[in-house]
Design brief:
- The longest helix has 21 residues.
- Strand 7, helix 5 and strand 8 form a beta-alpha-beta unit.
- The chain has a single domain, classed as Rossmann fold, CATH 3.40.50.2020.
- The protein has seven helices and nine strands; from the N terminus they run βαβαββββααβαβαβα.
- It has 224 residues and is an alpha/beta fold.
- This is Phosphoribosyl transferase.
């Protein structure tokens, strides 16, 4: 996995906001090697502003790739899996095996997140078809990784859609998460892999919730 050593906790945070992270990531990718056939796919919501800057740096087409985390019923911020466009699903079976979840709990969360995925996809696309991935490089971009659950599902989904190569590019992730994705991706690029990682937002000076309106604004400037 491509990475640079992160600053320690006493230094300035590496990213001002998601747009700054996307510009830094795009510059790094452009220097890394050419991306002549890449389609940049932003994971909503926070990954789309980052992906927009990456697509601009690479002069590549931009699209949104729909994926939703499946959070634990009693601790929604902890991922037990994810679902993505095309019905692709990934479950953290090691985690689920250790938890005494009641019958039907996973299915209840799955149904809720599939409804939200469909709602967002309809709004974000506004009738536009998804970009064709067959034979191309799918460059999956998010604002950072924690457990990597949503990226696991996204990787499987873009493979199923016929992408010739699949790469992951993020500003920040813990070392073990990036390493766990390597068997699924042709390339994993991360600017910062801090050993003391706790949360994606701790590496941004401004990390507000991304709104649907911000996602739509980013996608309106996409290149097809």
């Amino acid at each position: 996995m491509e990475s640079d050593s992160p600053p320690d906790s006493t230094t300035r945070l590496p990213f001002r906001d998601r747009h700054d992270a996307g510009r830094q990531l795009g510059d790094h990718l452009r220097r890394l090697h050419p991306w002549p056939d890449a389609v940049v796919l932003g994971l909503p919501r926070g990954g789309v502003p980052v992906a927009a800057e990456v697509a601009r740096a690479l002069a590549a087409p931009l699209d949104v790739f729909m994926v939703r985390k499946l959070g634990l019923p009693f601790q929604p911020e902890v991922a037990m899996g994810a679902v993505a466009t095309g019905g692709v699903e990934w479950l953290n079976r090691d985690l689920l095996a250790r938890l005494p979840l009641p019958p039907g709990a996973v299915e209840d969360v799955r149904r809720h997140e599939l409804r939200e995925l469909a709602r967002r996809e309809a709004r974000y696309r506004a009738g536009r078809p998804p970009l064709i991935l067959t034979g191309r490089t799918a460059l999956l971009v998010d604002d950072g990784l924690a457990t990597g659950a949503t990226m696991h599902a996204a990787l499987r989904a873009v493979r199923a859609l016929g992408a010739a190569r699949v790469a992951v590019a993020v500003p920040v992730a813990p070392p073990d998460t990036g390493e766990a994705l390597q068997p699924l991706a042709d390339e994993v690029i991360c600017l910062h892999t801090p050993p003391g990682f706790r949360a994606v937002g701790q590496y941004y000076r401004a990390f507000p919730q991304t709104t649907d309106e911000e996602v739509l604004a980013a996608l309106q400037g996409r290149q097809d």
